[in-house]
Amino acid sequence: MKLPIKKCYFIPLCAVALVLLALAIVYFAIVLPKEREEEELKAAVRAYYDAKLEQYERENVEYEDFEVDVAFIGDSLTDGYDLAQYYPQYVTANRGIGGDTTFGVEERLQVSLFDLKPKVVVMLIGANNMDTMLQNYESILQSLKENLPESKMVLLSLTSMGGEHWGRKNQLAAYNNVSIKLLAQKYEYAYVDLYSALYNLSTGEIYESYTTDGGHLTPLGYSIVTAQITPVLEELLAEQEK
User: Fold this and answer.
1) Contact indicator for 128, 100 with CB cutoff of 8 Å
2) CA dist., res. 190 & res. 223, Å (int)
3) Coil, strand or helix: which one is 32?
4) Range of weakest confidence among 57-61, 62-66, 67-71, 171-175
5) Would you say 207 and 201 are in contact if contact means Cβ atoms under 8 Å apart?
6) What pLDDT digit, counting tens, does each position of 62-84 carry?
7) Residue range 8-35: average pLDDT?
8) From the centroid of its chain, how far is CA 211?
9) Burial class (CB in 10 A: 0-12, 13-18, 19+), 191
């Protein structure tokens, strides 16, 4: 009578052991390597961020001998913007860091802008934290007004986007742009609508020729952006010279 009972227990125990073994294999073969990869990525991003801030500190010393006409601050869209190519007529400083958010920008305003004291600041930020960007966007503007009272400000709208990853964020980007424009009016800052300039009405997304992956810009895309920004810079810098 006892032997069948042992067999009844043995089979479920084997099944449980197999499940545990499978879970262990999944963890050590998939989950653990992925966690390590994510940690390595975070470390690489942090190292890049710190290296950029060190670079800005060195540049600030170099810029002490002359005035910077325009400083651009933002995330990867700014980081990848070849300012010397698109604005050869101005002394420019690129203060973009790939992957940055509104919170990151606020933390680094001192070294990125306040120590630099540019004549004009152009800011494009929020694409990496669209859900939370409005929590501290105005706080950034308050800091700019308090610490750079003589500098002119240009707020750029979020760009239109496309593709599987970025395209679904278009509606939120357009919604946030309304808030950016209202804040620009409140603080009497210039506002430039990049969203509409890059937007293809027939597809409901950014023009394919303007983007590399739906979220970042091609040289043609940057040319379109530059064409929108340049007249505003000309006007603001002319005011500075009066």
Assistant:
1) yes
2) 20
3) helix
4) 62-66
5) no
6) 998 889 999 999 999 999 999 99
7) 58
8) 15
9) middle
Q: Alpha helices of 114-166 — where are they, by DSSP H?
A: 137-147, 163-166
Determine the Cα–Cα distance for residues 96 and 86; give it in Å rounded to an integer. 16
The answer to whether residues 98 and 80 touch, using CB atoms and an 8 Å cutoff, is: yes
Query: Are 124 and 82 a contacting pair, CB within 8 Å?
Result: no
Given a contact cutoff of 8 angstroms between Cβ atoms, the answer to whether 73 and 115 are in contact is: no
Query: In 10 A of CB 39, how many CB atoms?
Result: 10
Assigned CATH topology for domain 67-241? Rossmann fold (3.40.50)
pTM score of the predicted model: 0.83
Query: What is the number of residues in the chain?
Result: 242
Decide if 82 contacts 218 (C-beta within 8 A): no
- Give the pair of three-digit tokens for residue 81: 């913007």
Asked if pLDDT for residue 16 goes beyond 80, the answer is: no
Residue 158: DSSP 8-state: P
Q: Collapsing DSSP states into helix, strand and coil, what is residue 121?
A: strand
Cα 229 to chain center, whole Å?
Answer: 18
The residue with tokens 């742009």 is: 177
Burial of 66 (0-12, 13-18, 19+ CB in 10 A): exposed
Q: Return d(Cα 61, Cα 63) in angstroms, integer.
A: 5
For the chain, the helix, strand and coil percentages under 3-state DSSP, each to the nearest 5: 65, 10, 25
- Residue with tokens 């010397």, as numbered in its chain: 84
Closest C-alpha among 72, 136, 73 to residue 102: 136
